[in-house]
Amino acid sequence: MSKIETSDWKQFKVIDLFEVKNTHSILKNEIEEDSGETPYVTASNENNGVYTYITYNEDLKESGNCIMIAGKTLTITYQKKDFYSNDSHNLVLYLKDNNHRTEKVQLFLITALKTSIGHTYNWGDSISSKSIQKDIIMLPVDKDGNPDFSYMEEYMKNREIAVSASLTKLQSAKRSAICQKFNLEKWQTFHLYDIFEIDSGTKLDKAKMETTAPKINFVGRSNFNNGITQKVNEIQGLRSYKPGSLTLALGGAYLGSCFIQEEPFYTSQNVVVLIPKKDISFEAKQFIATAIFKESQNNYRAFIKELNAHIKRNFVIKLPAKVDGTPDYEYMSEYISRIKSRSLHTIKTLQTV
Q: How high is the pLDDT of residue 200?
């Protein structure tokens, strides 16, 4: 939101603009919750301060279409309807200019009041009908130097339109991010060893790694940063794994975490390396990595049934397949590409909100 030009605004005393009164006080232990239709308003900033709706003594009801300031918390709300208050320290402000006492104008004034009070009172202070006598508020003015209520009304209308448009864009972005469910009829089950050479990894101890001249990624049992926990020195005589392979955490809290590594790397213990037996696109690998993670999360448990005893023997995943029964890597690649395209569209849409 662009900032409002306030260089031509002027100061006004709050008491010159508003009639200020203390509210009546009705304690919570005196009311029966949800017993009526009149709002029972407290100092809370949740739900516009409305705690419940009650029926009570009509003589203690406050007139609506006003601004209420919670005396002890400085919460400021617009109360459209008549209401009851929980504390006599709360203040009600009625705009003296009845012709402009609209909801939009008062919402504008609430923002101005919050700015003024925010600079005047500190945490732990309270506001009262006495202290507010000296408070001022900065407002736009018309050609005669009076508060420009017409501008305030128009400004809030424009903000309402802008917010509505932003919500529409957000809903559009949400819809564009929703993907259709898979048709699993043509999917088949594949052992992991059908697709990858499953290498046990370098099984290094992170605590013993040198980091004085970090060059090689160190992949551990992590679900963050592509599994990379740090960069370490290259170890003479120990060949690092080439980019393009996948890493898979066999156990622990992040069991099943599977990532494509785009730079040379070493691995910690309980992290295996999946080396594709065929040339598979990056997008198809992403598809497969997700399938591996889902299978791990659904059918295995950390510290109970981990992947160690199964990964090279009977770990299977379901994937889309061609007529000849081989994995349909083209479909996987196209699917992930569509996801990326939708995601980019969503991000661009959100950036305009």
A: 96
Residue 215: is its pLDDT beyond 70? yes
Question: Range with the lowest mean pLDDT among 54-58, 95-99, 155-159, 257-261?
Answer: 155-159
In angstroms, the CA 219 to CA 212 distance is 18
Q: How far apart are CA 284 and CA 287, in angstroms?
A: 5
* Alpha carbons 245 and 330: distance in angstroms, whole number: 19
For range 131-147, the mean pLDDT: 94
Q: CA-CA distance, 282 to 90, in Å (whole number)?
A: 62
CA distance 230 to 217: 6
CA 48 to chain CA mean position, Å: 22
**Where do the domains of the chain lie?**
10-153, 184-351
3-state DSSP call for residue 65? Answer: coil
- Which token pair is 20? 């200020």
Question: Which numeric CATH code is attached to 10-153?
Answer: 3.90.220.20
Tell me how long the chain is.
Answer: 353
CATH homologous superfamily for the domain 184-351? DNA methylase specificity domains (3.90.220.20)
Q: How many whole angstroms from its chain centre is CA 246?
A: 30
Q: Report strand pairing: 265-267 vs 216-219.
A: parallel
Residue 353 predicted with pLDDT over 70: no
Provide the whole-model pTM: 0.52
CA distance 165 to 156: 14
Give tens-digit pLDDT for 296-305: 999 998 878 9
Instruction: With cut-offs at 50, 70 and 90, classify the pLDDT of residue 94.
Output: very high
